[in-house]
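Subject: Protein record for review, amino acid sequence with backbone structure tokens
Category: Structural biology, sequence-to-fold work with a learned token vocabulary.
Format: Residues in single-letter code; tokens as whole numbers, each standing for a residue.
Body of memo: The sequence and its backbone structure tokens, given next.
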Amino acid sequence: MDEFTLSERQKLILGLIVQEYVEHGKPVSSTRLVEDYKLDMSSATVRNEMVVLEEAHYLRKDHDTAGREPTEDAYRFFVRELMQRPELPLSLRHTITHQFYQARFDTAQWMRLAASVLAHQSNAASIVTAPQSERPAFKHLQLISTTGRQVLMILVMVGGKVSQQMLVLGEPVTQERLTQTANLLNSLLAGRLGRELSAASPHELDTLGQEMYRLVADELKRAELAIAGEVYQDGWTNMLAEPGFEEVASARRALRVLEERPRLEDLLTQTVLNTEVGGVQVLIGGEGTWEELSDSSLVLARYGVPELATGVLGVLGPIRMPYGHTISTVNFVAGLLSNLVNETLGNEPSDG
């Protein structure tokens, strides 16, 4: 798949098919593309290119018609390479902004409003987590040998939060070496935040120390993103009524991820762990990891002010989603919440 490079003509055809299918929900034929978009090529040429795109797993053939439907790979390529992100209409931006600034300094009202705006604008389900200012810092590490190559890692953070993981090392390690490694990391990392730990481990660490360093860094970053407060949601009825879902069971399966707190925390942590504030991530069809989301797409963004307070917001809907408008909406609301967080907890409004 990665070895296949689309020509400019194939990109044009694929982009038009995705747009047509998202808008109308019906298989797209070569004749329709040529006639509707006044393409400077014949239906036969378009049809031949569609066959190539089908062989490359970007399209699937509808057996009841002569048309094609986009696959998950097509949507991913469209979002990554072809999509134009339209700016929300000025009047809509003014309306949303006015609503938020009427609720200034009322965090709970911001969250409810953000969830409502996202659900209404995307006609899908929305999720917003409250901004968290807690900054879990490293306090103490213990490495305890159990049986064979198994090691219990106990990470204590400032404030009392404790994380325990059972690790399986590549080879058996003595308790003495584990204790030496833990003591060295305790001296190197005391009081450090996850975001302060570089991708490269300190040079004085051996192979075992480097492995533990990476695990500690990942766990501290996860703790920073942990959902500690209320989660605000809206638009569940949108999902259940969405024609993009062939059966209601698919929507219910996806919504279950939002409903069950441990699953939701795991999903948000894994998805936005390395996403900067202002960045947007699109998860299409579960990306082979989340079976419950196999018929869904999730658009997520981090908002807030780094090192002050951040949260997550997003939209859950069918794979046949108007990605341009949805991503623009998520990004715009995230920007508003970032400004509000900065004005409330910071010293001055952020840029943008």
Observations:
- The chain has three domains: 8-82, 90-132+227-345, 138-224.
- The first helix runs from residue 8 to 24.
